[in-house]
């Protein structure tokens, strides 16, 4: 072997050894999801007009669950059909929910490999460079994005239940957006990740409108996952972040108002940094949709139940293979729903599904939301004190859900 080849091989061996010997050490700081939301294609009623995007600044307010000194932002073009150009972006401490104001002294420009602008390919998500921004758990942050032009197809979370603002021109550092219009949706914003210390991790709650927070007034942060984040902090579990990946109308097996849960399981749970637990609450729209569509013959109902069980087995196995504990949640009663009008056979299916959630041993833990919210006198109905519309809990119901989560389940994942 020539001398140059020997030297090249030796150098390669040293470099490879260096790479192999430099994994993150136990106890070192690491990235953990502190806030996030599920992405989808918005319906026509939730799209912004193309003219609103052109040379405009979009400011979106969100509440993080972890405190820290450094963070990074995840931008999404998951459902775009062409590359998305972001002309610039910034992050700051917000003036509070429902307001376009920021603390100007806290404003930090976001960079992408050191550049102020970035082009995100269709179907992709990009992270900003890390930025120093000291903040506490439960802080409201504002992410501002400047768009030169409208996205080819909008990637959004319509059920934000938080007021966002869009205004003409480049106003990334403006203390308050001038000439802004507002709406309660998020766009192209998938997550906030915090550099956290040893033991810090995240739990992702994935599901439908009950997780997304149907009925919660904008800017109040009263989803059951918000209540869970507050409980964790009050219990001293300040190193556990909570991410809400609910989609209103979401189903386990079929696309509804957004993609089916199985198809989005990787992006919305497993690809988030520091995730150690997943809470899966899904299925009421699968059951209700079959009945509402008039297709719930005994054979169809039996097949649906089998297919749902298998989908959950497959999803849990994917998570557990990556060291993520999966916590199954029982479906709450919905016999009072004026939308689905379920019959006795549909209630039998719900009970069978919930029994399987509790007893199948597919999951690493169980949260019994059914037991927490049902009316003891009419167990197929929500307790009146917790009932919004026969299907969704009210604010007291969401609080009861947060209190029903055994915090011990979220302390560790022994897989």
Supply the CATH architecture of the largest domain.
3-Layer(aba) Sandwich
Q: What would CATH call the class of the largest domain?
A: Alpha Beta
Strand content: 25-35%
CATH superfamily of the largest domain, please?
A: SGNH hydrolase
What's the shape? globular
Helix/strand-derived class? alpha+beta
CATH topology-level fold name of the largest domain:
Rossmann fold
Task: Indicate the percent of residues in helices.
Answer: 25-40%
Number of domains in the coordinates? 2
Strand elements, count: 22
**What's the alpha carbon Rg, rounded to whole Å?**
23 Å
Poorly predicted residue ranges:
1-26
The biggest beta sheet reads:
6 strands, antiparallel
Order the strands across the largest sheet as they lie in space: 6-5-10-2-12-13
Write down the overall mean pLDDT: 93
Which quaternary structure do these chains form? Answer: single chain
Q: Distance between termini?
A: 48 Å
Number of helical segments with 4 or more residues: 10
């Amino acid at each position: 072997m020539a001398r140059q080849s020997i030297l090249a091989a030796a150098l390669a061996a040293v470099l490879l050894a260096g790479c192999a010997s430099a994994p993150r050490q136990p106890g070192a700081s690491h990235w953990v999801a502190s806030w996030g939301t599920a992405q989808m294609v918005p319906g026509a009623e939730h799209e912004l007009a193309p003219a609103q995007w052109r040379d405009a600044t979009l400011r979106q307010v969100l509440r993080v669950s972890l405190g820290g000194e450094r963070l990074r932002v995840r931008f999404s073009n998951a459902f775009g059909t062409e590359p998305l150009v972001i002309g610039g972006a910034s992050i700051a401490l917000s003036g509070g929910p429902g307001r376009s104001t920021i603390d100007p002294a806290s404003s930090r420009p976001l960079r992408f490999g050191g550049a102020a602008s970035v082009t995100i390919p269709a179907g992709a998500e990009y992270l900003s460079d890390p930025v120093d921004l000291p903040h506490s758990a439960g802080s409201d942050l504002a992410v501002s994005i400047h768009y030169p032009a409208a996205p080819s197809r909008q990637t959004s979370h319509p059920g934000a239940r938080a007021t966002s603002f869009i205004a003409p021109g480049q106003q990334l550092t403006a203390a308050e957006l001038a000439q802004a219009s507002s709406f309660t949706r998020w766009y192209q914003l998938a997550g906030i990740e915090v550099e956290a210390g040893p033991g810090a991790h995240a739990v992702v709650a994935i599901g439908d409108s009950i997780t997304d927070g149907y009925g919660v007034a904008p800017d109040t942060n009263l989803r059951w996952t918000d209540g869970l984040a507050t409980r964790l902090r009050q219990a001293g579990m300040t190193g556990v972040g909570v991410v809400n990946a609910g989609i209103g109308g979401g189903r386990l097996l079929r696309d509804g108002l957004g993609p089916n849960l199985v198809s989005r399981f990787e992006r919305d749970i497993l690809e988030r940094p520091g995730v150690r637990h997943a809470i899966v609450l899904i299925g009421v729209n699968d059951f209700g949709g079959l009945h509402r569509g008039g297709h719930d013959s005994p054979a169809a109902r039996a097949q649906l139940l089998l297919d749902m069980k298998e989908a959950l087995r497959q999803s849990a196995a994917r998570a557990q293979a990556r060291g993520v504990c999966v916590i199954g949640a029982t479906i709450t009663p919905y016999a009072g729903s004026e939308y689905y009008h379920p019959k006795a056979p549909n209630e039998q299916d719900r009970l069978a599904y919930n029994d399987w959630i509790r007893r199948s041993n597919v999951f690493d833990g169980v949260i019994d939301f059914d037991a927490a919210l049902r009316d003891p006198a009419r167990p197929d109905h929500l307790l009146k004190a917790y009932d919004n519309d026969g299907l969704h809990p009210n604010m007291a119901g969401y609080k009861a859900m947060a209190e029903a989560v055994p915090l011990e389940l979220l302390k560790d994942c022994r897989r």
